[in-house]
Amino acid sequence: MDNPTLETLRAVYLTAEDLRVAASILYNAYHDDPYFIDVLGQQDQAQYEQKLRAAIREELNELWQQEQPLIGLFDDERLIGVACVITQQVPLGEARYWHWRLKMVLGTGWKSTQGLMEKENCILEHLPSDKCGILQFIALAPNEQNKGYGARLIQAVLSWCDEQPKLDGIGVFVTHPKHHDVFVQQGFSSIAEVNIGKVDGEILFYNKLDGST
Fold first, then answer.
1. Residue 13, exposed/middle/buried by CB under 10 A (0-12, 13-18, 19+)?
2. Segment 68-122, tens digit of pLDDT
3. How far, in Å, CA of 92 to CA of 73, rounded?
């Protein structure tokens, strides 16, 4: 690679001290995401942004509490990318824990919380087994995009997946053709075209048991 910065990159688990920066990276990355705009509502910009911050904060806290993999991409000591996976060892969709529902309702409202659970239900219905994870979030800091770091972050997630004996693979919901292409290049394949709320997208899946991926 001709960019020497790539040599300074490392992917490691996030610590509690990293969560605030991770939440900021995710907020900026998902601010204009069509799914979040649909599920949280953007009639009032300030209210939408408040709900988005709350949704990301509560989900990050829940993933942390449930000891789910939160992977950070660092350039030396600087966090520049985040990937968050949730496995079905944690109740998902309509089976979400009551305390998660309560905190999410307080932060985003009941309708938005229902929308978040419906998204998970849709993904779960299309995954090939109950031994699959979902890539909840993946994002790079705004000034670190279009440098090839996204592929490196996905590779870190897949390396983690390959080391998990109880995991068959990872699914992700994508709505943007550019994101689709990056995931496919890293070994994901499309398993379903879906409509979640008012948003069309695809569920892509990385099958670690498939020798062709």
1. exposed
2. 999 999 998 999 999 999 998 888 888 889 999 999 999 999 999 999 999 999 9
3. 26
DSSP H or E segment with residue 83: strand 78-87
Cα 180 from Cα 202, distance rounded (Å): 8
Distance, in Å, from the CA atom of 190 to the CA atom of 160, rounded to the nearest integer, reads: 21
DSSP state of 115: H
Indicate the DSSP class of residue 18: G
Q: Could you tell me the maximum CA-CA distance found in the chain, to the nearest angstrom?
A: 49
Residues 69, 9 contacting (CB under 8 angstroms): no
Q: Is the Cβ–Cβ distance between 65 and 16 less than 8 Å?
A: no
The whole-model pTM stands at: 0.90
Residue ranges of alpha helices (H) inside the chain are 19-30, 34-40, 45-65, 98-108, 110-126, 149-162, 177-185
Q: Residue 51 and residue 208: Cα distance in Å, rounded?
A: 35
| φ, ψ of residue 18 in degrees (nearest 5) | -85, -15
CA distance 195 to 17: 37
Q: Using the 8-state DSSP alphabet, how is residue 8 labeled?
A: G
